[in-house]
Amino acid sequence: MSLLFGGSRDELRRGWLQAWQQARAGAVLTPLETQLAAIVGEHPEYHLWLEQGDAALQADFGPESGRTNPFLHLSMHMALREQVGTDRPTGIRRIHSGLSRQHGAHDAEHRMMEALGRALWDAQRAGTAPDERRYLEDLERLISTRR
Q1: Per-residue H/E/C for 3-52
Q2: Interval 15-66: pLDDT, tens
Q3: Helix-helix angle 92-103:105-126, to 10 degrees
Q4: Same structural domain for residues 59 and 91?
Q5: What domain range is 43 assigned to?
Q6: How many domains is the chain partitioned into structurally?
Q7: Does 1 lie in the same domain as 37?
Q8: Is the whole model's pTM more than 0.70, yes or no?
């Protein structure tokens, strides 16, 4: 399901929606769909919304709406899990492990999302790849401040 990593906004959203629908129906899932459904399962606040089906795919989450974009939130969980699983950037697994001991794995990801979002935003504005050193420094601060 490469659509998560290179498809359009609609394809990405449909991947999340389909994985959740198939999991709820008891269908056999691919390993990626299993991961997606597990992440959605950890977010009951999105379940009713995702059950709207195609209507959920068309929702707009501009900054002026004041609403969290569930697809972005879920995708950030997936990105962080991929980073931790591959330890890229090097050191992120250790940081996640430390935060997980303090707060639990899911909450650790929530705490790490702000740094990930900032790294992606800065890279997008600069038209460059994310600055891994600065990203890791931001993450290190999460452990040292023990929020």
Answers
A1: HHHHCCHHHHHHHHHHHHHHHHCCCCCCHHHHHHHHHHHCCHHHHHHHCC
A2: 999 999 999 999 999 999 999 999 999 999 999 888 888 888 888 887 777 7
A3: 140
A4: no
A5: 1-66
A6: 2
A7: yes
A8: yes
